[in-house]
Batch of 3 targets.
Target 1
Amino acid sequence: MTTRTRAGKSAALLLASAGFTLLEAIVALVIFSTAGLALFSWINQNLQVLARAQDVSEATRAKRNVLEFMSDINPMQRGAGSNDFGIYKITWHSAEKIAPRDNSGYPAGTGSFSVALYRTSIDVTRASGARWFSFELTQAGYRRLGEPTHPLGAPERG
């Protein structure tokens, strides 16, 4: 004999639908765990991309600093060297790309400089000594020879 409630449903039916079954709870946990793992993987990938972007940005700033520093270096006078920037250190070596030649004077004659093109290899290392990046650039080198010559003799000063 079954007892009936006011709504007409049996007590056994009400007890069966009163909560989650173990199977429903396990399925919910599996779905929640799968979503959590996907979210964790996505966040981890974004953090790796962010770290790489920061490294590239830092390397770009360092390269700009190195280029500015190297703009003051005359490879004909100082073909190799190094400089410590604190968080990184640079080392460079220059080799002739085009042999030195005397420049021309204006409007004619021989100039007062010997000029050449150099290929400069630059290595950048972190303060820890680990190699960070390297690049090459082409630089003009020069050396003063003396006073310029004029084809018609010394120009009049007046």
Target 2
Amino acid sequence: MLVAGIVIATLGVSSAQALAAGIPSVAPSELLFSDAGGGAASDAQTVTLTNTGDAAFDVNGTPAADDPTHFKVTDVNCHNATLDGVTPTCSVTVAFDATDDTTPVTGSLVFKTDSGDVSVSLLGNDPRAQVDPTPRAFVAAVGTTSAAQQVVLTNTGSADLTLTLMPV
């Protein structure tokens, strides 16, 4: 159509084209961790990003935790991935390391995609044993038993503390 020297064109888009979109979805939507203690990180947990839509989308960069000191992202196969009908999923693993900070620690893992960002909530807890009073001196002559002394064990962390009896 020509109106006052300007060409106006009508472009049609089918409803199938308008509805085709990549839809990013993560599972699980939250990870709960308990620190392994002794300076070791927790067992790693896996998060899967899935395209539940009808068109491909790209993951931009590497999924990252907003608190990399406590939440370690490893085994990433989502770096700059394209999720489509052939490869509809990718995954990362995350571990929690409480270090010496107060817990609980919260954070998020973010997947940046060209169909929108999606995130996973992260929560890390840490059991912490504190013995009071310290130190204790047990004095006894050879072949005798020392006097009993009370020792108080307190969990000052934010996760359950498991005690295991060991034979002496």
Target 3
Amino acid sequence: MILPFLSALAGEPIVWEDNACREGRLRKYLFYEMIVTPSLVRLVREDSDLRTLRAIAKFRYLPVMQIRKPKLPRGRDRRLRDGEMEAICTASDSPGLPDLVRFAVETGMRRSEMSGMTWDRVDLKNRTVTLLVTKNGEKRIVPLSTEAGRILSSLTRRIDGKVWGMAPDSITQAFIRALARARTAYEKECAEKGRKPDPDFLTGLTFHDLRHEATSRFFELGFDASRVKEITGHKTYQMLARYTHLKAEDIARDMDRLEKERDRKSLEEVDEKSGEESEP
């Protein structure tokens, strides 16, 4: 869709060069099709690899540059509810999915990252997984919780060296099937007990939401943003914020805990001061 638009601006047909297309040089400069950003124009002016697009460089002020770029949508706020993960794992018809689901929540790893895991990059002794290829194109070392380490230790080693042996799309499809089966079982149970099923339970959940869940749990454990960013591999703090959804009730409990801790310290300081004053 974007090529005819650029061709019209340039007054001549425009074709991507193979290397530019292969590297996806322009992908990050476009929010939506048919929008040419100032960054794109600057790239065309400065990048010799895109000389076939230099024809549009003469347009210093494109009308579209005066249009405010649309804001990115707010990140999904779907988090696991009590009992959902267990229900999905129980209903799965894929032997490997239950461990994958639990591992995803423990590590916050992306679906593609887990799918590409190999045993030669797993260090169970130090509880780390090294990812050479990530979405951001950067190497990342993921720390493993005790539970994540236990999950990996329980797995049978494959001949091909892969940890999971499931392609990304296969993981998604297995999750969709498990979610549907779990919902059906839940509705059947509610019918047998004469109870109205919760419309939000086991619905509207995606495998990628497990990454959101893990990220939020890291913050709930008390990790600061910089540490969570290193664990999850988010490129920017802005993206990290879109993936973080702390539950209000959890924040309220934390507030109570912190207030009690503050009051306790205040009493200790008062007692200590009183003791010093009573000394001869």
